[in-house]
Design a protein that fits this description.
Layout lengths: L1 E6 L3 H10 L7 E7 L2 H10 L4 E5 L7 H10 L5 E6 L4 H9 L4 E4 L5 H50 L7 H7 L4 H12 L3 H19 L4 H7 L5 H12 L3 H4 L4 H17 L1
Parallel strand pairs: 1-2, 1-3, 3-4, 4-5
Helix pairs in contact: 2-3, 5-7, 9-10
Length: 268
């Protein structure tokens, strides 16, 4: 349902519009009605609505002034002008304010209002559909961009494992704010970026321990660690045992040790 607000200082017009027009049959409902345009203005500033049907000739604020003030407040609505005056100047002002329609009260009948509602609903439906489609496309493009940034970040890590890799360095490489990059990466992958770097370095450490004769110190520096002691601390925290102990355990034991350590961290 689209919300309609009625504003007219003539109570007979308000009652006619409220009671005679079958709003719900055409996808609308009267959310509020006012005889005082100033009261209407305050309401319209604070409450969502879709359609404003307002008289022109009112004290305090006339219909043209009311619509103008709403536009100044950046409030978008579909506006319909009611008038007892068949004057070209009023029509000109209504056109300048992009009023959807201009109806003379002398010719205002149920059939005319219903025709207006049918045309208005079709217009709003089309515009809402287009807006939703645009939002979906925008969201898809944003997701695609984020996914591309994640892939680029992971590729950077994979090709720079021998270096000390910081979140700030990678964010700068991607021309992104580091805080935004950190949040985005975690949201897209479910894993923190620093955790990802550590995991890849530890997986590479196991590969080097299994398939090379390099010392632990050599492996540490080859993976970009500042010192052997920091590498040992990281390895033990990640796998639950030292590189030396790993040499005397089978791979299944290492896997279980890493899983147990992961579960402990998750429970903290």
């Amino acid at each position: 349902m689209y919300d309609v607000v009625l504003v007219d200082d003539d109570v007979i017009v308000i009652e006619f519009l409220k009671k005679v027009i079958p709003w719900n049959d055409y996808g609308f409902q009267v959310a509020a009605h006012f005889q005082d345009s100033s009261d209407a203005y305050r309401y319209l500033l604070d409450n969502p609505f879709d359609v404003l049907i307002t008289d022109i000739g009112m004290p305090k604020l006339n219909g043209i002034e009311l619509i103008g003030k709403l536009k100044e407040a950046s409030i978008h609505s579909y506006n319909v002008i009611l008038s007892c005056h068949d004057e070209f100047t009023f029509a000109q002002q209504a056109i300048k304010l992009d009023a959807y329609d201009y109806i003379l009260k002398e010719s205002m009948e149920e059939s005319i209002i219903i025709d207006l509602l049918e045309r208005l609903k079709e217009k709003i439906d089309q515009e809402r559909y287009s807006s939703n489609q645009h939002a979906k496309v925008t969201k898809f493009l944003e997701m695609t961009t984020r996914n591309e940034d994640v892939v680029k970040a992971q590729r950077y890590v994979q090709t720079h494992l021998s270096e000390k890799i910081s979140l700030t360095d990678v964010a700068e490489h991607l021309h992104l704010n580091s805080s935004y990059f950190s949040r985005m990466y975690k949201k897209e992958t479910g894993e923190g970026f620093v955790e990802y770097v550590t995991r890849l370095k530890m997986e590479k450490a196991i590969e080097l321990l299994d398939h090379s004769i390099k010392s632990v110190e050599q492996i540490a520096y080859e993976l970009g660690f500042d010192s052997k002691s920091y590498f040992l601390k990281t390895f033990k925290k990640f796998y639950g045992l030292s590189p030396k102990s790993y040499k005397f355990k089978d791979k299944a034991g290492l896997k279980n040790a890493h899983l147990n350590n992961t579960f402990k961290q998750a429970g903290q």
